[in-house]
Design brief:
The complex is a heterodimer.
Chain A: E1 2-13, H1 18-25, H2 30-37, E2 40-51, E3 55-60, H3 66-73, E4 81-86, E5 89-90, H4 96-106, E6 107-110, H5 122-132, H6 137-150, H7 166-179, E7 184-188, H8 196-213, E8 216-221, H9 224-230, E9 233-238, E10 241-246, H10 248-253, H11 258-264, H12 269-272, H13 275-278, E11 280-281, E12 286-287, H14 292-302, E13 306-310, E14 316-321, H15 322-331, E15 346-347, H16 353-361, E16 367-370, E17 376-380, H17 382-394
Parallel strand pairs in A: 3-8, 3-9, 6-7, 7-8, 12-13, 15-16
Antiparallel strand pairs in A: 1-2, 1-4, 4-5, 9-10, 11-17, 13-14, 16-17
Helix pairs in contact in A: 1-2, 5-6, 5-7, 6-7, 14-15
Chain B: H1 2-5, H2 20-34, H3 36-59, H4 62-77, H5 80-95, H6 99-129, H7 131-146, H8 153-160, H9 164-189, H10 192-200, H11 205-238, H12 247-256, H13 260-287
The chains are: A alpha/beta, B mainly alpha.
The structure holds adenosine-5'-diphosphate and magnesium ion.
Adenosine-5'-diphosphate binds next to β2 and α3 of chain A.
């Protein structure tokens, strides 16, 4: 189900944006608009959807318009043009009053600089959203305590934020957003200000919380590793527009342009590449009905030493070696069933390269990549791993 | 040069004088004529409040006031040194036979400050939140602060006559700028990400003001209140010229009779009150974090 739909969203900063907008509509590039009018095109026509329960990561270099985009979605920044639908309702034309209500109920926001209120205790910070809604004190205290417990700060409610470390402050920020039980979490570089160890911890925690809560999350980051770790899908932004959209794997394997490639240059490929990305398609397979001669022919033509055998539904049955095929031809047998070795390794296409590598060490056969129904999708031999890594990583 | 110092100079411009002064006077005359009833009502009302204020403080014997003030000073600042300073200072004032004058001065200062704060803080908030309003208000404040203090006394007289009400009026006008200015400054200094957080959770403007902007500008606003008190005190002393009594009146008397010793004593009283008020409001300011 589509939770948020953004259509052709444009934000031009400045009081007198009309002229800039005209130029923008004519397709004049943003640098020229800035030079001629002094107006910045923060977001220049962006469309995408966010599905319920997914984590969408918006990635891009500093100044690419990520923060602006996020703030357009709850209208902290008024769009210049375009439409935003939340649960099917167009919120761009919404009255100020309904907008407040929408922010109170549907959006929880977490900020890069934490934005914790220094004059309020931890629990009072967490209560803020509920207080704004006019929820009664006991009730909001209870909900806030639950939220605090969720982020592991149960004992810290009465402390003031200045006594907390950065990581803890951001937990408060997260608890404050979760306390109102929003459908949507908007997180703007929420972990970027934390040091790497704490950052990883927070990422794990978010994943854990998300697995229980199933919120719809839009997470902004300029860090690809973080994007890959958290994102079900990733949107890549550059100069206010989306340059690529897809799963982390799609983006890694088919970087749409140099900008995207630059981004992924530094990623540890063995962590993000999965079996699917490096497998070779199983063009040459044997069938159960094939005789030994056909099998041997196929093997020799492909220049390999063994071949996977599937049934007529393409379900994996085992592997046949060239030598065995040759030997039963000598004996005059017509059926290959006796020489099919069932001793093969099958893996799912999602298996990361990290886990795949050790398997490859102690097996003499290639590994079969199969789906849930055991249908053969592809083949991985040792060479294909090297090739996969080389193709992405070394360029 | 010699001639100039003797006041025998006469460099007139060949173009006739622009009648700024006349216009102001005509305006004030018009106001007093047409709003005589109103100004008289305000005058009487203000006078009776100030009188009540003074009467209440005079009703208690000095030592009770001294103990209470000392306790307040200690309670707010939590500093023994300041409590000590308060008790010694007030005892000295009592000893110098300046008690009644001090009570009058204190009453005028506190009353003027309350009025200045009640008017000043909302104007400051308005100036902080509205760019256009700020563009108008700030230059006016600059103007008010550079105008010599006793100029305010002159228009007060035709409105409210000689005496305590004119003194209060002039004092409020003179002392209000820091209350406005620092309220505006404090609110505008609140970190933008906190404002954004407040907005993101769906706060109304009023909720944002009360729950975020005002508490976070508390210290700056209190610094403004402190300055307002100090300016009130200095103006109340000057206002003796138009018939406000109190410590300023004592100074004025000493000048007229050429009694430097008496003038010094009254001046010392002003300094003591200034220090006590300053330390207490500083304490109020830093009490909250
Ligand atoms: N309030 C603003 N006024 C003018 N320009 C802005 C404003 N906010 C952002 N911008 C500009 O819009 C562009 C995108 O900014 P931003 O969304 O903050 O990028 P990111 O979050 O990706 O670093 C930048 O060029 C920035 O300078
Ligand atoms: Mg940003």
């Amino acid at each position: 189900m589509v939770k948020i739909k953004v259509e052709n969203l444009v934000k031009i900063f400045g009081d007198n944006y009309k002229k800039a907008k005209e130029m923008f509509d004519k397709g004049i590039p943003k640098e020229e608009i800035l030079k001629k009018t002094g107006h910045t095109v923060g977001v220049g026509g962006v469309s995408f959807k966010v599905y319920e329960g997914e984590t969408l990561v918006v990635m891009g270099l500093s100044g690419s318009g990520k923060s602006t985009l996020l703030r357009l979605i709850n209208r902290l920044i008024e769009p210049t043009s375009g439409r935003i639908y939340v649960d099917g309702d167009d919120i761009t034309g919404m009255s100020q009053k309904s907008l407040l209500n929408l922010r109170r109920k549907k959006f929880g926001m977490v900020f890069q600089k934490f934005a914790i209120f220094p004059h309020r205790t931890v629990i009072q910070n967490v209560e803020y959203g509920l207080e704004i809604q006019g929820i009664l004190p006991e009730q909001r205290r209870k909900k806030s305590e639950e939220a605090l417990e969720l982020v592991g700060l149960k004992e810290w409610g009465d402390k003031y934020p200045k006594h907390l470390s950065g990581g803890m402050q951001q937990r408060v920020g997260l608890a404050r957003a979760l306390a109102i039980d929003p459908d949507i979490l908007l997180m703007d570089e929420a972990f970027s200000a934390l040091d790497p160890l704490i950052r990883r911890e927070m990422q794990d925690e978010l994943i854990d919380i998300q697995s229980r809560m199933k919120k719809t999350i839009i997470f902004i980051t300029h860090d690809l590793d973080e994007a890959i770790k958290l994102g079900d899908r990733i949107i890549l932004m550059k100069d206010g527009v989306v340059v690529q959209e897809g799963t982390s794997e799609e983006i890694l394997t088919n970087p749409s342009d140099e900008y995207v490639e630059k981004f992924i240059e530094h990623v540890d490929m063995s962590k993000v590449l999965t079996a699917q990305a490096i497998m070779k398609s199983a063009e040459t397979v044997g069938f159960l009905k094939d005789g030994p001669r056909t099998i041997l022919r196929k093997i020799q033509e492909a220049g390999i030493s063994s071949i996977f055998v599937v049934d007529n539904q393409h379900k994996i049955q085992g592997i046949v070696e060239a030598e065995d095929a040759a030997s039963i031809i000598k004996k005059g047998e017509k059926d290959i069933k006796s020489i099919i070795s069932r001793n093969i390794k099958t893996i799912s296409p999602e298996m990361p390269l990290n886990d795949l590598l050790p398997m490859m060490v102690d097996t003499k056969y290639p590994v079969a990549v199969v789906n849930d129904e055991k249908r053969l999708l592809g083949v991985i031999v040792r060479g294909s791993i090297i090739a996969g890594l080389a193709k992405r990583g070394v360029e | 040069m010699q001639d100039l110092l003797k006041g025998e100079w006469n460099n007139k411009m060949p173009i006739p004088k622009i009648p700024i002064g006349n216009i102001i006077e005509a305006g004030i005359e018009w106001l007093t004529k047409n709003f005589a009833g109103l100004t008289r009502a305000i005058s009487q009302f203000t006078a009776s409040i100030i009188d009540a204020f003074i009467d209440i403080l005079m009703f208690f014997p000095p030592w009770i006031i001294i103990i209470v003030t000392t306790f307040i000073a200690w309670y707010i600042t939590k500093k023994i040194k300041i409590a000590f300073l308060t008790i010694l200072g007030l005892l000295l004032i009592w000893n110098l036979d300046l008690w009644d004058a001090t009570i009058i001065t204190l009453s005028l200062v506190l009353f003027s400050t309350v009025i200045a704060v009640i008017i000043g803080i909302p104007i400051g908030i308005f100036a902080a939140l509205n760019n256009r309003a700020r563009g108008i208000i700030m230059p006016i404040l600059d103007f008010m602060q550079t105008m010599p203090a006793f100029v305010y006394l002159i228009p007060a007289i035709p409105f409210f006559g000689l005496g305590v009400v004119s003194a209060t009026f002039a004092t409020v006008i003179f002392a209000i700028p820091p209350a406005i200015r620092l309220t505006a400054l404090g609110i505008r200094q609140v970190a933008p990400e906190l404002i954004e957080a407040s907005d993101a959770f769906g706060s109304t403007r009023m909720q944002k003001l009360i729950k975020v902007q005002l508490p976070l500008s508390y210290q700056t606003i209190m610094a403004g209140v402190n300055q307002t008190i100090m300016l009130s005190l200095s103006m109340v002393v000057i206002a003796a010229m138009i018939g406000a009594k109190g410590l300023g009146g004592e100074v004025w008397k000493a000048i007229q009779r050429f009694r430097p010793g008496m003038g010094f004593e009254a001046g010392l009283g002003v300094v003591i009150i200034a220090i006590i008020l300053d330390r207490i409001t500083q304490g109020v300011r830093s009490r909250r974090t």
